[in-house]
Each structure stands twice: as structure tokens, then as C-alpha cells.
Amino acid sequence: MKTLQIYLADLKELLQANDFVSVRSCLREVSPIDLAEAWDRFTPEERTAIFRLSTRQKATQLFEELDPPEQAGLLGGLRKNDAEELLSDLDPSETGRMMRGLPAPMVRQLTAIMKKGGQEYVQQYLQYPGQTVGALMRGRYVTLDERWPARTAVERIQYSTRLRRIEETHLDTLMVVDADNRLLGQVGLKSLVVAPGDMLVRDLMDSRPPTLPPEADQEEAVKLFTRYKLKSAPVVDSGEKVLGVVVYKDIFEVAAEETEEDFAKMAGFSHPASRTIARSAFLRLPWLLITCLGGMLVSVVVGHFEGTLSKIIALASFSPMIAGMGGNVGAQTATIMVRGLATGDIPPGGETKAIIHEIAIGLLMGVCYGLVVGAIADSVYSERYGLWFGVVVGLSMCFSMTFATVMASLEPFVLRRFGVDPATATGPMITTTTDILSNALYFSLASRLLLR
Amino acid sequence: MKTLQIYLADLKELLQANDFVSVRSCLREVSPIDLAEAWDRFTPEERTAIFRLSTRQKATQLFEELDPPEQAGLLGGLRKNDAEELLSDLDPSETGRMMRGLPAPMVRQLTAIMKKGGQEYVQQYLQYPGQTVGALMRGRYVTLDERWPARTAVERIQYSTRLRRIEETHLDTLMVVDADNRLLGQVGLKSLVVAPGDMLVRDLMDSRPPTLPPEADQEEAVKLFTRYKLKSAPVVDSGEKVLGVVVYKDIFEVAAEETEEDFAKMAGFSHPASRTIARSAFLRLPWLLITCLGGMLVSVVVGHFEGTLSKIIALASFSPMIAGMGGNVGAQTATIMVRGLATGDIPPGGETKAIIHEIAIGLLMGVCYGLVVGAIADSVYSERYGLWFGVVVGLSMCFSMTFATVMASLEPFVLRRFGVDPATATGPMITTTTDILSNALYFSLASRLLLR
Hints:
With 452 residues, chain A is mostly helical. The first copy, chain A, contains 22 helices and 5 strands. A 3-stranded mixed sheet of chain A has the order 1-2-3. In chain A, strands 4-5 form a two-stranded antiparallel ribbon. The longest helix of chain A is centred in the C-terminal third of the chain and has 35 residues, at 351-385.
């Protein structure tokens, strides 16, 4: 960011002065990622100029960083030749991603510009739904024959990659395939380069690389990359045929988005990056509504026990603490469960163990806090309301904490069974349910035990 | 995981039968990462056998995946020759990481085994505190001269990397340095391989690669890698001299840990992965204690207004809702702020704008909910307590939500100024403060306006 902030004013000035030589050298100092982020500070004319004055490699990178509408705007400003060149430089997956976000007439216009081979690739790409591995995989990679010596393999890489497209072709790990394009193994570019020239690809390759099916969720890809610290993973169909490759660069992006999403869901709203105040408020309303409706139910519960409350007014003092402790223990438990499921810390089959573990913790803490708070309540109010007051407070505290843990540890699994993302299970929902039930128990215990 | 689960029983059986040939081929199918995770299911003898029967590359990877005590246990079981070989294969940063976790006599014993050059590297590594970039960087990389043609550069890479250490030497991006080891630029292995043989390194290199200082926090490295989707970043001192390199593999690990940590802190406890029930409960207690003490303060506040409450018993019905809504809005705001700071979405200098934005949202929602809930309270209770009852409920609701947003949006910055991680600012703390203050305002408003 800093770099661009330094150059931004200069860049705009130089562009206005039509001093293209200086603009070029200025652009060399700036990352395409920073440029893309500040894209809305340039006029359409400046954008086209920046794009055309960047090196081909940086221009492609810049284009990939923009949002689909911005990409379309930029493409519209380019001459037909330049647009054609750009489209041939882009990976089909990138072109497809852009097309998903464009109106149909524009898509038709772009398809017309593309070369025939490119069109087919993009069509193939578009058949995979968004959020799947298929929509994430790249189409530009190099395959090798297992019988080649390392020297031939390196020559083949050099031959099949023209210099200007290096950035867009995945070369870090090369896929070894048979005559039917079935995956036999994978070999790193660095192993090939460093190996003696006559060593065979077969003897250099890793024959059991982790692979991904195209229909898997992108989240699965993030898990696989993180677990095995991969640089790339081949995408293969059910017959082991290679369809494409997922690369770590794209995984960075997906992982960042998913973390954002998880955090947002846990706080109880569904869209973290929203612009206007009214829109942000609107997006957050649904979850607050649950809290609010829950609050009304609590007020109905408390209202129902007005008789008890008016006789033992001290009950009101402890009600917020009892509900609050339950809510917070519940939030802790839910966080552990949701993260455990997301990261794979809770493996398939290990659910019951994890649930029992959490409930035991909740019960233990419930008993501890129940004893302490009950004793305090007793010491302050036993003179006025008798010995049972402390018992009611302590028991309710223990119930509230245990109940919240039970609910928070079970809810993610229940929701998952119904196809709901468990990250939405936390926060407001658990707090609200605990509020209602712990208040109900507290006041009915009090009515039974203290008003005899 | 699945792969190892399939082979685990076989592997143990084959080891007991001393069928080393089959063990070897079995080990070829299993990832070192899966092996390391199931390490506690093997006996010490089995562990040594597995280690010795793995390929050299896999053995090193396996060793790197183990925790320091397990590493020490494994080293102790090896013959002196094998231990020496292993220590020379490891990157100095890995050896250093292990030594940080070992008792002093063991460290001395290991240092004695190491070769002199290795000892110096490790000493140098150990001077950087944990959690810094210096403690993360790797020491095995290759540097190039900018005047070399690509062909010479590739030869140099082949020469300075013996095949058996490829995995441990970083080769993806090569650092171009001058005679004093000062960084001039960086070039990707694939650019070098694909370029015409007589093209100069100078013309292939990226002359402004993002770099990291060794004293920076590891979190900074994660941010840089995620933002620019890097594969590696050179670590340079204040004089631009190259000290080492940070690679994406290690970043994956740090990033996963940090996300875990953030989630844990937001839920209000500090250690997500803990084993026994008692220990887990103990680790979570501190934050619950804050809630509990806060709850006691609330009960003191409510107790103070017992007179008011006994006359207008319906006040108790709305108190949980008012506090709950504030708490939940506060949690949403804090989540947005903490994530924004962590991901760089809130850039340095953009804090004030972000705070004002959040407070405006809080105020807007506070006014909306205040009007609605106030109207409901009025329609139900105006006959019994007069028109002011709805006003008190509505005003308190509005205050609670606005106040919670103000606090939640400011707190991360205040804490950051005092050097506290903002992720700890959320959840229980904000809920508790909001509970206390919104109840205080609610009951004092009620006393003033309803008991005149």
C-alpha cells in the first residue's frame, strides 16, 4: 500500500502530462495488486493507459486482480487487438470467472473475440458450479511422460511454454500422465532441474500425490493444501484423468474469504464486506432480530413470574448473571466445535468423543460456579429469604452453564445434518436460547422452593 | 488420514514380523504428515524403525513434523552416524526450533554432534526471539549474480544443491545479490529454466520483491504472503543484506495457528487445543470469571434499584433484552474491527473512518430497535405504568446498542495502543460492560421518569 500511496499523485500527474516513459518506469515500482486495490481512483482513460503501459505480465496480473465489472470496463476500453491478446494470455478459469459476472450480450461479444480452443476451455470451465474445485482449477499446465529422462522433460517444458506466458502456466509441479492422460504421478520442477540429465521422470516422481475431484467444495481444497502444505494439486475425474490443477495462489484467496465468512457467521451476520451504512445495518439485522424476539420471550417468561418476583425482588439481581454465564460458556463451546469441524481437528467418527468432552467441561465449570455463586447469594440474602435462596441461584447457574454447553456442542452436528453451515450456529442463537431456558428454570425453581 | 488408517495395522504387524522390505513399500504410500500425527500409536522401537526405513527425504520431512520432545526421543534412539546425517540434512531453523524446546544437557549433546558450520548457523538462528520472522526464516537458499546468463545460473543451482538435499533447500525463487550479499532482486526458477540460455539474470529478475526484516512479527509475514500471494520472501537486515528466506510452507503453519488463536481469543479463552477436561476447564475459567464478576456488579446495580423495581415489576421483563441486544451488536462490531485490523482491510490511517462508520451503523440500529421495542412496551404496559414506560424502554434500548458499538469499535485501538492483542477485546468483555452500563441507565431512567 505504502508504495502506491507514494506514487499515486505522481502517476496521475504523469498520465495527464502524457509522459508515457516516466509512467512506465513508475509502474515498474508498483505491484499490480496495489494498483487493482486503488482502481477506483483512476478515470477510465487513465485505467486504459495504465493497462497498456504495464508489461504484459503485470497487465495480466492486474487484470486478474480486478472484479468482473471492472474487468469488463477495462476490456471495453481496449482496442480489439489488445483485447484479443489479453484473452489469449488469461487462464481459461480466469476468463470463465469473469464471464460468470457479466451480462449475456457482453459474454457473447467476448466469446466472439476469443480463439476457438479458448472458447472450448471456457465452456468446459463454466460447467462447474461456483465454489467447487472445478471452478477454481487452472487449465494451463504441462504434462510429462514417465519414460523421459530429466533432460528431455526440461526441454519439453521450455518448448511448450513460451516465455511471455510463464506467469500463466503452472510449472512448479509437473504432472506425469500415461497415453490416456491418466495421472501417474507428479514431479517438482526443482527436482527435474537438479537431477542428473539422464535420470528418468519415473524415478523422480512422487507416485501418490494428493488429488482433488472437480465436484468437491473449495473448502476441501483449502483443507488439503493446509494439511499437506501443497504448492499445487492435480484435479482428476473418477477415471483418474487429469482435468486441471489447483495452485496455492488461488488457495490463499479462497482461504482468506472463508475465514472472513466464518468470523462473520459466528458474530451473527452474513456479509462482512459491505459498503453503505444502511446496507451494513440491513445485513446485520436478521441475527439481531433473533436476539430481539428471544428477548421478548424472556420478558414473557419473567412476566409470567411477576408474582414470585414481586415477593422476592432479589431474584432480579441474579438473573442477568445466570443467563450471561450460560451464554458465554455456550459461545466458547460452539467456537471450539465449529473450528474443530472446519479444520478437521474433529475427524469423522470422533464427534461423540468431542461432544462428551465438551459437556464434561461444561458440567465441571457449572458445578464450580454454581457452588461459588450460590454461596455468595446465600451469604447476602439468607436472612431475608431463607437458606433455599442460595440453592436456587446455585442450581440455576449450574443448569444454565451445563445446558448451554450441551446445546452448543450438539447444535453444529444437528445443523450439519440439515445442510446448514455450522458456523451460523453460534453466537446470538445459543445466547438467546440459553437466556430463555435458564430464566424459565430459575424462576420456576424459585416459585417452587422459596414460596412454599 | 484415511491412507494411514488403512495401513496402520499392517504397518505394526510388518514391523513386529521384521519384514523390512514390506515396511519400506508400505511407508512409500503414506505421507510423513500423517505418520507424524499418529506418532503416539507407535512404540519407541517402532518409531526408530519407521524413521530408518523411510527414504531420506521422507525421514527429514517426518522429523520436521514432530514436536520437539518427540524429535529428541527419536534422535536419542538413532545411532551416532544417523543422527549426524539427520542434523546435517535439517535446515538450521528447524534444528534451532527443536533446540528451543529441549533441556540444556541435551542441547549440548546435539551441538557436539553437529558440524562446525551448522553450529554457527543454529547459534545465529537462536538469537532471534520466537514468533519473529527471524525465528521463521530458513537458512538454505541459493544466490545468483545479476551478470550471469540464465544457463550459468541453472548450472550454479545444480552445482550448489546436491540431489539429496533438494527438499531442504529453497529453490523456487532465487535471490540475486551483489558482492556484499546485498539484495538486488529475485528471480523464479521457472523463469530461469524457460528463458533463452543467454538471457541475463539482470533482465529476468524482479528488482523490487517484497522483503521482511528479521525482527518483524510472524503475523506481518502472513499478511505479506496473503496480500501478494507470495511463494517466498527474502529476509534482509537494515543494510539490505540477505539473512535468509521465509517460504510459503511455513506460512501455512503460522497462518493456521494464528486463525486458531484469533478464534479462541474471540470466544474468550486462550488455548484451543488442550487435552484433559480439567485443564480445558481451567484454561477457559479466566474469561468466565470476568463475566461472573460483571454479573455481580449487575446484581449490585439491580439491587440498588430494588425500590423502583418493587413498584414497577415489569421493568425486570425488559432488562435481559436491552442488555442482550447491546451485547450482540457489540460482538458484531468487535468482530468486524478485529478482523479488519488483522487482514489489513482497515489500513493505517483509515481507523477513524472505520470507527465512525461502525458507530453510525450502531446508532441507526439502536434508533430502529428502540422505536419498535419502545412501542411494544408501551402498548402492553402503558395502562399500568403510564406513557413514560415505553419511552424508558425505547431510550435504554437505543443507548445500550449505541454504547456497545462505540465501545466495541474503540476498544481494539485502545488495547492495541497498550500492546494488547485486539482479538482479546471481544466477546465476554464487551458483553459484560454493556450489561452493567445498560442496566444502570435503564433503572435510573426508570426511577427518574416513572416514579415522579
